[in-house]
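Morning run. Coffee first, then this:
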Amino acid sequence: MSDRAEWQPLRNELQRWADAGRQVKLWFRDDDAIEPTAALDQLLALSDHYAVPMTLAVIPAHTGELLASSLASQKDLTVTVHGWTHQNYAPDETKKQELGAHRPLAIVLDELHKGFDKLKALYPEQFAPMLVPPWNRIDKALLPELASFGYRAVSVYGLAKPSQPITLVNTHIDIMDWHGTHGGRPHGELVDYLVRELENRFDGNDEPIGILTHHLVHDATAWDFVATLLEETAVHPAVDWRQVGDFIG
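And here it is:
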């Protein structure tokens, strides 16, 4: 384990919640699942060991029965739609987007319709009608159209903006350092982010806190963070780990 002293600010904040007789809602989203891998097995083993529900954002165009069969008996697992191909259509000098305004709206919506139907058929018991846009970005014009295909929620990154045409169930802590080491962020840094989110919720925001991971690119620092987070929170009286379906209206 890493220097466990780095985790003391989280312990202190959770103790404040416990002393107040309150619980914070947490949920866990992992992106880019396509097929069974050793890394995915490692993530699911942590979910099983700590009895913490997981949400997998699966890329519909690249997946099939192989992954579905391997996940069929997995407890506390939810599958959601992660775009269609996870392909970037944005110009090189701009932020990556599959679901941006770079293609005709009808084409993008058709792909999202296909992705919904494919994963719902592959995962009759584990599917949740939620869209996870690749890179956490989506053109606002798409949001009002999603319900016609059965989508009931979207998950991106950051505090949810009010008055959206569809329910937002967002993530708030991304454990990866995408612009630096491309590995896991330092534990102390992530603990500080999480404490700030907890402080925000303690002051009245009831939005569940989403933890975001990417199992295929985790290094030792990232895996150690996930394991330590679950160890610190799985049975804590101030923490309520939930399935994402609980937050979908």
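The chain has a mean pLDDT of 96. Good start to the day.
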